[in-house]
Amino acid sequence: MANATWLADVLRAAGLKVAEVDGWKTRGHAELGTIRMVMLHHTAGPATGNMPSLTTVTKGRPDLAGPLCNVALGRDGTCYVVAAGLAYHAGAGAWEGVTAGNSSSIGVEAENTGVGEPWPEVQLDAYARLCAAVLAHVGAKPIMAVAHREWALPKGRKIDPAGIDMTAFRARVAGIMNGAPVRPPVPAKDATGRPTLRRGVKGDDVKTLQAAIGVKADGSFGAMTEASLRAYQRAHGLVPDGIAGPGTWAAIDGAKAAA
Q: Which residues form the N-acetylmuramoyl-L-alanine amidase domain (predicted)?
């Protein structure tokens, strides 16, 4: 038994956008057992914002202590790594011979209202890639990407993730695991050598970014910097993913040139 401290590295190696929530490596109700599957959920959270349910899935609700998942998936495809240990998300159920849900799975809470909200392609793409990366890492097959509604007993107790056809989804996961093309990752640097920056990094490049987007230049890329960067990207017609890559640096250069 051990915590899944490999999660962030595995997801990042798969080219996914990863944000590490402070304290995730030691967060959990207990240690995990042998990981045999990935369980898919939706948050049933607010209709606006990228990952407005992050605090809830990290700290819990009045009736259930957090963490409530291992990874939270934003609408823009960002993977927020919440907990390396056991999370409360599965409840009673069974799938392919597995009956211990919380200790045997990586639980993913994807931001979606669950009441007819369309799934953005960038989020679905990340969901499938996330599942493929984890299943490949633990040596499991695509069938072990399981919807909460498929797992839960008695049947009909859960509906999540609403609107995702799991047969088609698992086919997509299988394709990725078999080498199907996926979206290219954000380049590590732009043409001038400036690094791609995301939540959790620190240093002088972060200070430069913070000064450009109008937040306190303390050199630490935290939640406030990420929120301000998303707003800046939105205002400049970029995908508001909260990651400063070549496109964001180019927008900053353009703004400076026009000043």
A: 23-162
